[in-house]
Protein 1
Amino acid sequence: MLNTSLNMKLDKKKLLGQFFSGSKIAEMIEALVPSRSITSAIDPMCGIGDLLLPYAGIADVTGVEIDTQLRDTIIERLPNIQCISGNVFAAQTLSCLKPEGYDLVVANPPYVRKELIGKAEETKFSLTDIICNLHFFTDEFNTLNEIERNMMHGTIDKISGLSDLSIPAWLLCMMLVNHNGKFAIVLPNSWLSREYSQPILELIDNLFDVNYILNDVNGVWFKGNAQVRTSIIIASRKSACNKDAFIVDLYENAQSSTSLYGNVTGIYDLANFIKKGVSIPNVFEIRRLLKSTITSVQTEKMEVCVRSVSSNNNEFITMPSLDDIGLKISQGLRTGANGFFYLKRVSEGVYQSIISAAYIRHKDNLFLPVIQGQSDLTDRYVVNTKLSTVLLNIQDSLTQSDYDNTEEKHKIGYGVLPLDIQQYISDSEKLKIKGHLIPALSSVKTNVSKPPKGLYRFWYMIPKLQSRHTAKIFIPRVNSSIVTVYKNEIVNAVIDANFSTVDNSHNSIWTNNALVAILNSTWCQLQYEQLGTVMGGGALKLEAVQLRKVKIPNLSKEVLSEFDKIGEELCKRKISNQSDLLDKIDLRILNSFLKNEEKSETLLCELKNKLQHYKEARQ
């Protein structure tokens, strides 16, 4: 009976977000939130009931599951459970839940991508329906006071159209925690850094005190299943009492055959062992948080380092972020159909399509060079060599057919495309990418615009490029080893979405050379490791939303001018031959606020040791 999950079709598992938690995760949660300390528990997306099993002995246990095929399995495992079969976001299901909430809400929310929400036969619910019901039951449940309700409504209103199903699931879980209760939620580590999750994290900080954040360092808790690095957040409703908060990094070596921490704790129970605070490097590492908030977690290690040498305890906290100083950090160009818009340069004026093998012979004025991936990078901080990929950048020309069928007022200034490009467009209209005709792709059909007044645009016309697409400073989003920040010196080069870009056009004193120097410093490297997301294979994923949080000391124009000169020299050398310049950069950054060379050298040594530890941990 318990092999149900093995027989499920993969498509159904994706549509419902089904990756069952297993007994080891459930046992670790119960070790920190003992069943003897609560009288009621609920898992609103319970799967086969894994997370509720340790709480089977308490009087009031509720599990909600959308997949009716799992009902018999749940009841067999938890005979005393109140098992509700249905969509937990449906009004009829929500009305069955206790309005006063529960002592414990456990969940492994379904991480169903936005385009799959409501596609499963069991759901038939759109994100709009879900948001509507969340608003209604925010007022129906008695778990929030008036101020908290307003916060909840405000966060629901911020749900992005890019959100996966985990976002409303998190909001519901928080809503179900009673005034003295807790939640324990399993989540992929990457979720903490998603831009659309930020309003949720802020709400957690407003309503809850974080007790524990448990991290699966080696990505083994769901080994052979979801293949992601996982975290567990345990938090309790805010109170006037100060509560200890801990981050615990669990490595694979901490596991025994029956427990995720069985090789570590010895005679101590898990909670007491963590409170003792004795870390075992690369096995079981414990860190006490300065604040019981989740938004401060990622950079607290940096804050501790700075406090150790600075007389100002708030030195790091008060530093501006890259976002604060006016640098615009965004993702590079996402075409929606690289197979059509990107071509390979064969020779001067000759281009080959990636998807149709067609050759186009034409002048370069319709094509822009593209820095597309890691293969375009060099062994230097500068990219200035000839690129093999180009972007078909049609802005003011139409196919003959579209030109003839468009009224004059909607084509003023437009010309007709060369015949070879017209033929390429005509051939491509019949080609499919991922099962869809290119013009019908969701991110291509939005190129079409036919306003009552103004110029028409057609599917083959890429949206007009913004400064972020052609910025001169860029950073790979996926980094197998150390994060390197590059300068683009190619005229009119476009940066692909494989990279984040730094647009300094609104802050001229932060020159390209100064940025190359500062953003490649140990000071920034350590923050990248703390803010980024470690992927399954050990690579570090670093998104724009994370880069914006990187803190920089307040630097004067004179200091930035120094960095401009150092950065210029940095760009002349190979990356592997930079240790003396990088040390000079690091010490200048640290001394800008410590004003003491000895303290700067001490802090730099500590930062380097921590950076090395991070790099080793993800390899």
Note: Residues 339 and 494 are 16 Å apart (CA to CA).
Protein 2
Amino acid sequence: MSMVRYRPDVDGLRAIAILVVVAYHVGAPGVTGGFTGVDVFFVLSGFLITGILWDELQQSNRISWRTFYARRARRLLPALAFTVLLTLGLGVLLLPAVPDLRWLAQSTVAVAGFGSNMLFWRQTAGYFGVAAESLPLLHTWSLAVEEQFYLVWPLVLLGVWRLRRRGGRFATVATVVVAVITAGSFGLASLMSDRSGAFYLMPTRLWELAAGALVVLVGRRIGEWVRVRPLVLATLGLVLMLVPMVVAPTPRWFPGLGALPSVVGTVLLLIAGQLQPANRVSRSLSARPLVFIGQRSYSWYLLHWPLLVLVRVVTLTDSLVRDLGIAALAFAMAHLLHRWLEHPWRTGRSRFTRTTTRSLLSGGVLLGITVACGAMVLRKPTAFSFVDVTPSQAAALEENRRPWDVCPALPTGGERTVDCSFDPEASTRLVLVGDSHAFGLIPAMRQAAQQLGWGLDVMWDPGCPFVVDYRPPSGDRGFDSACVRENKADAAYLAAHASQIGAVVTTSRASTFIGDGASEVARQVWTQALAGTLSTITGAGTRVVLLHDVPHFKKPVAQCAIRKSARSCAVDASDARSARQPVFDAEQAAVAQTNGKVLTWDPFDVLCDATR
């Protein structure tokens, strides 16, 4: 039985996946886990690609690489090249040259090179970080994962196919090999300390694609092994797939255990549809409206995010109604793109893709044009950008958006201590430790260290305040295991190098953990843990400065200053002080327990006046 026969329920699954992804991106209520729609796409891709390769191996005992990659080029490249070039063109009109347009141009080249996931892994502090939200091509990370999968997966299947000549049935050998790969990748995704890498990289996403492949490789034997009614399987699968979409998995468990329900649910739906296509759930997924959306899901996925990001960056406002309108516009564009470009190229009706050779050449030309355009803008973004900024504004944007340039080594979330050092020849060190808000102080701390004749060491981890042994009560937000390990390692480093350290400066966005919604018990536990952390450092004879956090602004300040005015970014001073009061009180109480050995500084005294 062919595994690549058309299944309308697969298009229905695509429709659900793209609907929740788009809803999540526009900020619609009730879909806090909409990003798990991408996990559904991964399973479907593994299922479909393995089905194509399985059929070819069954029929010809070989894989035609030219045919396979020509098919991938016809399917993926026309809509991708159109979207990337359109985004780059809009970026030229709407983005300042440095760093935004330069980042976009760099992303353009990376997309054409099938490596945007690695670029975003290195450039951002995680998919869920603030900086990532302003990258117009961020969503292409998932396409890069699939494209990298296409490079290795045919080799895997071809290798296990040839093992059958040494005995055993191919399906059994292939199933065992793929099951081992799936388990290994899942373990890596669950245990990898670099959670940003676990999110973006192909080896930690491979298990999701391989799960779809297992449905193909088990094939007809599913009916022999599975004694549960297909409708029961489909219903269970639908529940498992939908629940994480509305109840977001904890980021620290994603994409390992957090993605497991989505993956298992999609697999069960595929199995149920294979065993009994007429079961009620699969039949519902095959409804014409869902199939219509699913067939345009690829183009919609490509188009919606750049349009959302560019409008948000330019207007610096949030509007659910506006963003829903943008999503609807993106779908209308996706329909036209599907009809006039994507479908003709994919089916070979276009004169550019009527043969395998033409498909490969056309795909190469599209990639070449994309790389060339991206490289031209990347070489001199100031010559292309229509947005004028002053040198000081450009420097502020650069400092605000480019962790890799400011701190040469992004944190791994593991047990490494010093993430980057400045002036390493200096014998006395100023140490800056904390989360991303501490990271934002690097330029100021470098200047302070240079004035003292010291060097600067930075130990930071996004979302991880430097508070050792913080164990909140059940129901309050705590640190993930990687943060706990890193804090202990940082404390041990500070103790071991106390004689070389002139001072330690720490700050964090503690409101994430003990701000609004946190219990009073959690704040008390935080106070004691912070006091213990500070006392341990001062007990070794090291001076400590605790900086209270900066006001929380509703708009990106650097962007706001360019697009509007610095004054328009301001927030009411009394509201800002009231919002941070629980955190301020907890930090002051912790400092009081150190008997005056810790200095504090409040940026509100500099950044705020009586009213703003």
Note: The longest helix spans residues 65-94.
Protein 3
Amino acid sequence: MKRKPLALLLLVFFSALSGHLIWEYLRFPIHGAMSFFLGLGVFFLLRHPLSIRCTSLLAFSFLFALSLVLAKHIILGGGVTALSDTNYITAYSAKDLVALAVLVIVIYQGLARLLIWVGSFAYATLFKPNDDSVYGIILAKPTWLLIAALVFCWLPWLFAWYPGFIYGDSISSIMQAQGLWGFNNHHPVCYTLWVKIWIVLGMAIHDVSFGIFLYSLSQMVLVAWTMVWGARWMHSKGVNAAWCVLTLAYFALTPFFAQNNISMWKDPLFSCAVFVLCLRLYDFFSHDGQIDAQTVFWIGLFSCFICALRNNGAYVILLTALACVALLLRYRTPEFKKKAKYLSGAMFVLAALTIAVQGPLFNKLHINQSYAETVGLPLNQMARVVVYKGAMSEENKAFMDNLYPIEKYKDVYAPGIVDRFKWAAGCNAGYLGSHRNAFFKNYASMMKNPRLAFEGWELLTVGYWSVTHFTFDTGNISKGCLWCFKWWTKDHGIKTKNLLENRFFDSRSVFNQYDATIPLGFLTWLVILITLLALMRKNAPAQMATLPLLALLLSLFLATPIQYWERYGYALSLSAPLLIVLLAQAARFLALKDTALYIDKNCPTSGKTDPTLT
């Protein structure tokens, strides 16, 4: 059907406007030619628009478009430690509303066509059986051999940076393990006990460095096992062997994973536990009406690991349980209700026990942690209110002045990190810990400055939801302050060396500490998209598989101490190949005959769960 001249003229105008606005709101430098080609793409996209009605897709398009508008006004002129005169937010205007409307329309139509392709061609490729191919033969190799292959690929980094990456955060655990400091829960006690096994072993043979080397090696093996198990899990659900082998190759050959896996951080093991929990939740909700004892055991075990390996682990489990209860409003089948009540009840109990142990019990045993660690984001929001002279009562001013001289906040408030204020000389963190009720009372009172509070949240979380910031951030390792133990008067028996040192090339330049993987902002939106599509199509297994990742993201949105650090979202990086598979599965439901995308009561599959991957 031919368009009328006026309609065609309006489409040309809208396309030109769209090209300019999209290029600008993606935060690229102004470039007329690129805006033109982008507008041309919009013209062909909307020349024959799809007649669609998909609430989940519309909701995603709006949220994603809103994130682009918000991110466009965030200026990060310095590093994460820069003050508010360098990292700030510019003023909004009516232009942003126009851009929001344009972005929603273009994202909605563009994403619909992309999902059609993913749900048809990409799905057919991902789920094409090929067990008799070379990929199937590789995947059928013994588990220990595949683990050894991954570890072998990572070994050059371990040898070049022997005994592994040791950070400021590692020092606390090492000191406690050596008996030089008493136990504290600033970094989880359970994780410290795990470190202590290897430190004590090193001390027994009079070589602490070798003990840390064994720690790094054991962590590499555990992470490799998780990756191999995850690849085989996908294969058992119908994903072709080529994708599973490609997944393992991606993990083996991307330096980012090698660097993280030789790091003395709690995050690699914690992230493995989150990843395995995602897959086990999928399994748990895949069997109609049956509660498989083995799956329940694994869910319980890895939920315990999550609670033990990071202080926000209990909140990840708690938020997963709350989301599970909320889904009862969507999934009303007896099978789902039975499993959801069983699972959420057990998770609530586990989270409550963990919070009780880490709170009252640890206090009784004099195992404490800085209270400022748990309220970092609210603390930064309050500091922003002070710096920008928001509305405050006399009680608010007195409370903030007791924490830190109120006239000096502008010298220590860094919008992108809590530590600059928290560790500033003169900051009375002890006062904060002894006046917890007063803190929440004053926080609630100071939130009568909603704009400043929201801006404070934006600037401290931007890296986890923006796709236009931190796209190629390679500072994941360097942010950890490598080998801070050298600042101390003693090295405590830790000797670092380059076992690959030679006169032909600089091995540490080849196997360096600078690399990045898929930015967390992209993975965040991928998780949200899969969740919304799974919710629409009532696919309970896929829905539950994303809940721990959503809970992890929500915990970062509520309590991150820094605006971007990839290690905090390492579970998302491990889950990236799985997320692509889940997206293909969700998109398949939307790809119908003649590439028409619609949700309609006449559609024979509308509202039904696709049995694929179950």
Note: The CA atoms of residues 209 and 494 lie 5 Å apart.
